[in-house]
Amino acid sequence: MKKLRLIAAALTSALALTACQSGTKSASTTDSGKSASLRTMETVAIAAHKCWFAAKDPAFRPYRMANELNNFGGTPRFLLVPAKDYGARPLLVVQATGSSSRVEVFGPLMDQALGARINSDVSRWAAGDSGCGASA
Length: 136
What we know:
By secondary structure, the protein is an alpha+beta fold. It has helices at residues 2-30, 36-54, 114-126, and strands at residues 63-68, 77-82, 92-96, 103-106.
């Protein structure tokens, strides 16, 4: 009988502890702890990958995406580099800094015909529209 009471007490304690922990987890689910810049850049990077690379858009065939969303500098970003030289200087940088959800886009590709499309796509994605839109 004494063993049964000890087991019951242990189970009750374990259930109470689990209830406390699950309450903490659900609170952290609503606030992921991610900065506004990281949340925005995740959205933009996923859309860019989906619309430019996974869709095999011919305008982006000469490039590869280098994802640096979790870099140590605190500036989530992704780069476009030449497809045949992954270690080359980036041709496009898309980034957001700190607690801002404002996205910056710069690099040599922005001075080419593709620049207007890149700017339009990134602006749309940063505003929350993850659609691919029309290709150039």
